[in-house]
Write a structure and sequence with these properties.
The protein has 144 residues and is mainly α. It has one domain. The protein is 62% helix and 7% strand. The protein is built from 9 helices and 4 strands; from the N terminus they run ααααβαβααβαβα. The protein has a two-stranded antiparallel ribbon with strand order 1-4. The longest helix is centred in the N-terminal third of the chain and has 16 residues, at 36-51. The radius of gyration is 14 Å and the shape is globular. Residues 5-12 and 22-33 have low confidence and may be disordered. The structure holds calcium ion (CA) (3 copies). One calcium ion (CA) binds next to β2. One calcium ion (CA) is lined by residues 100, 102, 104, 106-108, 111.
Length: 144
């Protein structure tokens, strides 16, 4: 699969909005795998590498924001800048409510980005403004 296809695939799940994209990819593939414990890590690596566009081994804030925006665009099928529960597909309503800051039942781009950037800062344990693969996978594990 090409890098572009992988990115698109990673973006096609509700987890792309609620979690880190690595989380989305690992979860969306887990059901298809014989050994999700091993291959889950490999898939997290794929998602991490897709987000790390300059390939320096760190997903910085700009790279993370780009990845999050691509995830949003992939889910917003009618391109109105909002995600409805139907566009998200199967998801946890409690997670939806956490992102839906004004409680109007749709997720706007700013609502999603605010939520995602909070997740970024929470995952950045050493506070250096970038996520290492270890920080990213730690955050994926703690959110499960
Ligand atoms: Ca980078
Ligand atoms: Ca929409
Ligand atoms: Ca809203």
């Amino acid at each position: 699969m090409s890098r572009k296809n992988l990115r698109a695939y990673a973006c096609m799940t509700a987890a792309a909005v609620f979690g880190l994209s690595a989380h989305a990819y690992a979860q969306s593939k887990a059901g298809d795998l014989d050994d999700p414990m091993n291959l889950g890590v490999a898939y997290e690596h794929v998602a991490f590498d897709a987000a790390d566009s300059n390939g320096d081994g760190i997903v910085d804030e700009a790279e993370f924001a780009r990845d999050a925006a691509a995830g949003f665009a992939g889910l917003d099928r009618n391109h109105d800048g909002k995600l409805t529960p139907a566009e998200l597909g199967p998801h946890d309503p409690k997670q939806f409510a956490r992102v839906d800051a004004n409680g109007d039942g749709v997720l706007t781009f700013p609502e999603v980005m605010t939520f995602k950037m909070k997740a970024f800062r929470a995952a950045d344990k050493n506070g250096d403004g970038g996520l290492s693969f270890e920080e990213m996978s730690e955050s994926v594990r703690s959110s499960q």
